[in-house]
């Protein structure tokens, strides 16, 4: 199996069908189909389930995908590290982020970085926290922005100060006597939309106050949570940085208090990997903007 076979297989899985993958790879669809058939024959396994319009992987195909993602990440990362030696701040920065932290941090960060280093380009992945770390481990990205705790033996990291959780609600369903905050005990019988990572703590806090919360949806999709709140399905418990995503005048937010709940953002990169010059400079700028740390550029 050659690198070109891995890239072809990876493109098919990422695009979801062979025709789109062929366009991405700039080859004819029949040629790509034959290439995959030869690959399956050489491996002695079936990688794709036949008879489905959208690509579905067999068990062997799923193992293949995870390994290929790691191998291609290693190959592409090595090429970038070698070619960027002595080239200064140029090339492409690959980073992954969760929705809320990315919306809060990246616009200012990338805008300022672009003004300083206009020759740098960006590739940005958006996913949930565990997937971001997986992309880091597989060297698909160099920098990950997540709310997931990271292993200090594996990753270098910067941890931002805690930020409070807030309740985002349709203003026609506003709760709480205070205009800026809502107490936990005011949430009795109130429908709640909550990400999985905060569910157990939230439920425990409610039980300490003598009631069982009315959770109508557990969802790690911040955008989906906001849409459900907009539709009046319930109140969404989210980080205060989510307010940067509020473009609808019908949505308002209030800080959750008594007790407060909070979260934090982690910027992580692999310890055993040399960052590209561009990514190293981006980390320095991040420290400068968000932690007020000045260093040499």
TrEMBL record:
Domain of life of the organism encoding this protein: Bacteria
UniProt family annotation: Belongs to the LysR transcriptional regulatory family.
PROSITE patterns reported in the protein's UniProt record: HTH_LYSR (PS50931)
GO cellular component, one term: cytosol
Gene3D superfamilies: 3.40.190.290, Winged helix-like DNA-binding domain superfamily/Winged helix DNA-binding domain
Keywords: DNA-binding, Transcription, Transcription regulation
Organism name: Selenomonas montiformis
Protein name per Swiss-Prot or TrEMBL: LysR family transcriptional regulator
Pfam families reported in the protein's UniProt record: HTH_1, LysR_substrate
